[in-house]
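hey team, just a heads up i'm posting the complex here instead of the shared drive bc the drive is being weird again. everything in one block, sequence lines first with there labels, then the predicted structure for the whole assembly after. its two chains so it's a bit long, scroll down
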Amino acid sequence: MDAIILQILNGLDKGSAYALIALGLTLIFGTLGVVNFAHGALFMIGAFCAVTLNKILNLSFETLDPTRTDFLGNPLKVKTPYVESWFGPDVGAAIIDWSVPLAILFSIPVMIAIGFIMERGLIKHFYRRPHADQILVTFGLAIVLQELIKHYFGANQIATPAPDAFRGSFDFGAMLGLDPNVIIYPYWRLVYFAFAAVIIGGVFAFLQFTTFGMVVRAGMADRETVGLLGINIDRRFTIMFGIAAAVAGMAGVMYAPINSPNYHMGMDFLVLSFVVVVVGGMGSLPGAVLAGFLLGVLESFASMNAIKSLIPGIDQIIIYVAAIIILLMRPRGLMGRKGVMED
Amino acid sequence: MLGLGKKDFILLGIVAALVLLAPFILNPFPADSALAQFNAGYPDLMQRFMIFGIFAVGFNILFGLTGYLSFGHAAFLGVGSYSAVWMFKLLSMNVIPAIILSVVVAGLFALLIGFISLRRSGIYFSILTLAFAQMSFNLAYSVLTPLTNGETGLQLTLEDPRILGVSQTAAGGIPVTNLFGMEMRETTTLTLGGWAFQFNNGYYLCGALLLLAFYISIRIFRSPFGLMLRAVKSNQTRLNYTGLNTKPYTLAAFVISGMYAGLAGGLLASMDPLAGAERMQWTASGEVVLMTILGGAGTLIGPVLGAGFIKYFENIFSKINDNVLHSWFHILPDSIENAVIWVVEHFVGSGWHLTLGLLFMLVVTFLPGGLVQGGQKIGRLFRRRDAAAKATQSTPAE
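-- predicted structure starts here --
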């Protein structure tokens, strides 16, 4: 029982990441009809927004402290970050400590800008081209973005810690009345899950309850008719692309403390996210979220020792096995719409 | 001739001439000149041109004719490599049985995967093939270690049985791959003035097989079967409505292209007898897609050109380093030199992938038909100019 709860919890945070990326992919696909292979790169750029903000906040100047000396007897050099000198040591340290959550605010405008540039500059020209061309051009773009990041941040992982308050883990089992020390769960992963739930809920609410969202949904269903009604649907779709980029970016920012960012993390997630999107059904937002969590939980169950000893190697391939079975049983994925991507 | 039309026969002849003379053509600069690093006429790279040419030609039979975009073709390449190395370990160092086995095994594997994946089309097909390839890759790394030797990769050892051959040579080393005694790695060097031309046995075996593969591909393109595959690409629904079952045709195309990939894998192992799981990773599958598109999908010669182009620049660009750049630009004043080098070094050496990505975006955006389309455009430009103004002298575009 406790093992099962633990695996479900483990699956939820991985599933949240899959679901967030898949949600963005589906938003782009559903609105613009473009298969965006650069979406993983957007996730990666989001994670590097967190790294960048952390570096900016840690910019510091050196002062000589005559009261203390280092081991050679010279006055000790003390590094003080600028934020600490501006806001005082306590507030400054707190700001640095909270750099990852702050990076969300930083990443939203950055990601929306990147999304706009991408859509207006490149993807706009690919609406009427075959899907293979879209895949290839965005794949090329993903390589370029990845190499640029590699050039400026290096090839190694960069540790980006979560705020002190969320470091460490808590005893989830004791809360449920089980034996203590059975289900230990890191705080940050719970934060990640809650964050993902908020974002997903936010996107759905935006699409469901605002006029803008209503127009976008109408455009997804029948773009031409909406255009004939005198609505500039292209501009709204561009904005949706920006939002999708921001969702991927925020997913990346929050993922930075879980897995230190490196330049190829986007590609690692991309393949799985595509599997998730296809399993959920191309163009279906609830499908993407459902499949994301489903595959995340399945993956963590398959990595249980009991199951691994039963079927060796299952943890490596479970997602793909599940994808194959689901696609063969339900041709359009879990919640796919008819007529999408079937030409 | 050979059952080909005149145009196709000329095309085959050109490819044959290129393959035969490649050691000269790819070696235009003297060995000790500063430009020698642009030479590609060394055996290892030339073998790769041929092998990846075969791979891309096979991929084109599936993607170029039927329009089914497979993202898992590297799996067949990997399977081919593994079977060839096992043949070297168990039977003999002769490459013939190894290549035959790798083609057969890859074909069977493709039959299995194709049978399941081809039940869907469009992006669903792409993801299914990708899923199968990633599964094979992950399994090769983990559970199948007894077969694949995991991360180390499958290698020959001195203890291998090699029933028809010897476990170790008289000198106590591992025997080398050969074709009835002709060693694959044997290279004859012809020195002519400053030039050193290398003729490698393995290269000519790969070249012969490329010609065979190319010939078969032309025959398929021109056959009723090929026409049927094109019909699948242009409108599969209509074919189904006329009461035709397209599955056997697409499956046959899938298996054939899988066998091509297996042949390429077997050759890779024959030239250098080791096989690793990274050959099956999805990036490797992506690479063959790139080659085909860059050259021109659906054309005969395109995939070969694309494969050669990518492999050439991958090898040459990634070798250029800071010192080389400094020696190129040392005529410029220092400040400009440093600025130029700062810009250029992003694109060469380890930055080669950046160049590849940019190239890729440019080709897909402006030349959707690949290099072949580019060549045709330039050709048409000349013809029009010739026709319009015969009197004016036209300058070559290159």
